[in-house]
Amino acid sequence: MRLLKARLLRQPSIRTADQMESLKCRRDLEEVANGAGIASTVLREIVASRRDVDPSIDARLTRYFRMSEGFFLRLQLSHDVEEVRRNEADALDRIVPRAA
């Protein structure tokens, strides 16, 4: 019983594990930010949905990750459109489409 209790006390708590994962993510974000020439605070704000991707950020991230230009802008636009659909669903439903 004592041995089991001692082992349980030595294991990191979930909170500590979460904190370690958070630190790892921050380090990864710092690496991307440095490699892409973006301020790490800007990248953290984008990840936290407090800032939108702009063309400069898109150009830097797509170059860093060797992706097609505009990828992150299209991703931002898709997110924005989905937010409008969700937030304005009632108003959009009341619009009667014009006949062609």
Q: What key phrases describe this protein's structure?
A:
2 domains, 100 residues, mainly alpha
**Count, helices:** 6
The proportion of residues in beta strands is under 5%
**What is the rounded Rg?**
22 Å
Distance between termini? 79 Å
Instruction: Please give the share of residues in helix.
Output: over 70%
Question: How would you state the average pLDDT, rounded?
Answer: 83
Count of discrete structural domains: 2
Largest sheet: none
Number of strands: 0
Task: List SSEs in N-to-C order.
Answer: HHHHHH
Poorly predicted sequence stretches spanning 5 or more consecutive residues? 5-9
Q: Please identify the structural class as seen in this structure.
A: mainly alpha
Note the overall shape. elongated
Fold and architecture overview:
- The protein has 100 residues and is mainly alpha-helical.
- The protein has two domains: 12-51; 52-100, no CATH class.
- 73% of the residues lie in helices and 0% in strands.
- The chain has six helices and no strands.
- The protein has helices spanning 2-10, 14-36, 40-47, 55-65, 71-87, 89-93.
- The longest helix has 23 residues, at 14-36.
- The protein starts with a helix and ends in a 7-residue tail after the last helix.
